[in-house]
Amino acid sequence: MELDGTPVSVVKTGGEVFAINDICSHANVSLSEGEVEDCQIECWLHGSAFDLRTGKPSGLPATRPVPVYPVKIEGDDVLVSLTQES
Question: Rieske domain: which residues (predicted)?
Fold first, then answer.
């Protein structure tokens, strides 16, 4: 999804909801097309994984983190703020 022109991936895993920038910091591809496991999202193209809490990569080829955003749940609504947490 895009919020004010910013690509954002919203992920629910382990009972928690996370919002992370949807573009891999290594290659200009969508992270939302990758697998989610152990609170990480993996880039489908080169295999870099990013922590959903911090945006930090866990291995090469990515070396730069991606932005993560605060999430608030209100009833059935998921609210995402584009103010970066990390």
Answer: 1-80
